[in-house]
Specification:
The complex is a heterodimer.
Chain A lengths: L1 E8 L5 H11 L3 E10 L2 E9 L7 H15 L1 E7 H8 L2
Helix pairs in contact in A: 1-2
Chain B lengths: L3 H12 L5 E8 L9 H16 L2 H12 L3 E8 L11 H17 L4 E8 L6 H8 L1 H6 L4 E9 L3 E3 H17 L11 E5 L20 E7 L2 H9 L6 H30 L3 E5 L1 E2 L9 H8 L9 H19 L8 E2 L7 H8 L5 H7 L7 E7 L4 H17 L4 E8 L7 E3 L6 E3 L9 H5 L3 E2 L9
Parallel strand pairs in B: 1-2, 2-3, 3-4, 4-6, 7-8, 9-10, 11-12
Antiparallel strand pairs in B: 1-7, 4-5, 5-15, 6-12, 13-14
Helix pairs in contact in B: 2-4, 3-9, 7-14, 8-9, 8-10, 9-11
The chains are: A alpha+beta, B alpha/beta.
Protein name (chain A): UPF0237 protein OTK00_000667
Pfam family, one (chain A): ACT_6
InterPro entries (chain A): ACT-like_dom_sf, ACT_dom, UPF0237/GcvR_regulator, UPF0237_ACT
């Protein structure tokens, strides 16, 4: 299963490191990553593969949200299919 | 990989524009549960509802988690109960109603529909008894919903039952007076009722449906409004195109949820209802879309025009996004559930007369309208008759969900909480239609019914 993770917030040192190490600890493979400043905010978008992740979707999501709160950014994870459905015919 | 723009837009649809799935509704046939012993029917019914909908809450929660898409309501729709309880006494009917309500509570289903009857042709003694039980059935339950179909384009309009329903609605209001006559919000009168409608109070599992199916009703007026906000100076055809595109995207989300829920619950997928349905939240209102299109206040001239194009664009956009569509597809205009509508009523801009005109192009009809509690039963019947006529003669579904709030007068406020919202009591026309309603009888179907 693949998911899209977005991280939005004020830019600072260590955001990518914090999120990606959490993913690595849970065997989540990052397939694609892009990062940009949109509307004044640091915005990171990741496509990840959850195939080898032992956690349930909601558990991993909760961990990410918690980590986001620690470093002051808004983290979101949604199943890839939502983006596929809405944006691709 | 998606572009950043696409991803941010999709996330904003949910986070800032209140995109949500209004409801997942499991429709269940009860034909194989029937028995002339009421308790046996109840036991069979319980077993079957638990079998199909027992996991509904968990699956809906899982979908919310996976897609980050809120699902506002989990619902169950049943075979019209009147078809299975011909021989039951009044007391047994109430027992069935409360048993259904208990099952809904046990499964944490928000609403359960199907305490329903279709009387568009004949009004026999059994059905009369059933309809007479509706006030007590609603007063002794919290989640049960009820509906009566009183007319179709194919068979005409049954004025006898419409005359009766005026009194029934007053009785429901009286019996649920402690909760601002809340029972009336769980009862709707229909013309041309669809079999696969996931929206309450009118949801039931039609006789043409299979053993079980799952239907999804989408929502998302906020998403459309936001898209229109970026088109301040656009011409009306561009506005139409924008609504169509957004309706497509919203419906795709609905189709995804339908497929996922169907797979998880092992229930065949039914339809996606392509609807824009408001919630009382600010920014999630149909009225605000109409005002964004250019009407200063909903109810002013131009409102019917704006609603007509909105409704058509939603259907066109959505029709390509989902394989099976149905239900009541279009824009809903309930008053109490829509913060913009409530504001327009308070400002005196939106009258019942204008609402009735709007129902000729909306997806349902006079919906969640609070009127003074001392209204004559015949006036309610005549309001129903008008609305049913619009449906029957124009070959569309229409409905009436009106609440004569007990003890309240024009300008007072009522509050139902949750999705149903609250509203001021509206001004009604007091001239008496008694002579008309008391004639009773049946109106023959219109000439368009002879099409074949």
């Amino acid at each position: 299963m693949r998911a899209i993770i977005t991280v939005v917030g004020k830019d600072k040192v260590g955001i990518i490191a914090a999120i990606s190490s959490l993913l690595a600890q849970n065997n989540v493979n990052i397939l694609d990553i892009s990062q940009t400043i949109m509307q004044g905010f640091f915005t990171m978008i990741m496509l990840v593969d959850l195939q080898d992740c032992k956690l349930k979707f909601s558990e991993l999501k909760d961990l990410l949200i918690k980590k986001g709160q620690e470093i002051g950014v808004d983290v979101n994870m949604q199943h890839e299919d939502l983006f596929n459905s809405i944006n691709r015919i | 990989m998606f572009t950043s723009q696409e991803i941010i837009e999709t996330i904003n649809m949910v986070k800032q524009s209140n995109l949500d799935i209004r409801t997942i509704t499991v429709g269940i046939s009860l034909f194989d549960c029937s028995s002339d012993i009421p308790q046996r029917f109840i036991d069979n019914m319980r077993k079957k509802i638990i079998k199909y909908a027992g996991n509904l809450k968990n699956v809906a929660n899982e979908i919310e988690d996976m897609f980050g898409l809120p699902i506002v309501n989990r619902r169950v729709a049943l075979t019209p109960i009147s078809l299975l309880t011909f021989s039951y006494s009044y007391e047994d009917l109430i027992k069935v109603a409360t048993a259904i309500d208990d099952i809904a509570k046990e499964l944490e289903v928000d609403l359960i529909g199907g305490y329903s009857a279709a009387v568009h042709k004949n009004y026999d003694e059994n059905t009369r008894k059933f309809i007479s039980s509706i006030p007590d059935a609603l007063a002794s339950t919290d989640r049960l919903c009820s509906s009566v179909d009183v007319g179709t384009t194919r068979s005409g309009i049954n004025l006898d039952v419409i005359a009766h329903l005026g009194f029934i609605i007053k009785e429901i209001a009286q019996k649920t007076k402690d909760k601002d006559s809340f029972g009336c919000a769980r009862f709707v009168v229909f013309a041309n009722a669809p079999d696969d409608n996931p929206f309450m109070a009118g949801a039931f599992h039609g006789t043409g449906e299979g053993d079980c199916s799952i239907n999804v009703g989408i929502s998302g007026p906020g998403v459309v409004k936001r898209a229109l906000e970026e088109k301040k100076d656009a011409s009306i055809d561009e506005i139409y195109e924008t609504i169509k595109k957004m309706a497509f995207k919203i419906t795709r989300a609905g189709q995804l949820v339908l497929q996922y829920a169907s797979k998880k619950l092992k229930i065949p997928a039914g339809i996606v209802d392509l609807s824009l349905a408001p919630t009382p939240k600010v920014g999630d209102s149909i009225a605000e879309i109409l005002e964004e299109i250019g009407v200063e206040k909903v109810g002013g001239y131009g409102t019917t025009f704006a609603l007509a194009l909105l409704n058509d664009a939603v259907k066109k956009g959505g029709a390509m996004a989902a394989s099976f569509t149905g239900g009541l597809s279009g824009a809903f205009i309930p008053v109490s559930e829509d913060s913009g509508m409530v504001r327009a009523v308070e400002a005196g801009a939106l009258s019942l007369g204008k609402l009735e005109a709007m129902t000729s192009v909306c997806s349902v009809g006079l919906d969640m309208i609070v009127v003074p509690g001392d209204v004559e039963a015949e006036v309610i019947s005549a309001m129903i008759a008008d609305e049913i006529a619009i449906g029957v003669y124009n070959n569309k579904t229409t409905a009436v969900r009106v609440i004569p709030a007990y003890g309240k007068k024009e300008g007072d406020e009522v509050n139902f909480g949750g999705l149903l919202g609250g509203s001021k009591v509206m001004k009604i026309n007091r001239s008496s239609p008694k002579r008309l309603i008391e004639r009773g009888g049946r109106v023959p179907p219109p000439i368009i019914s002879l099409r074949n």
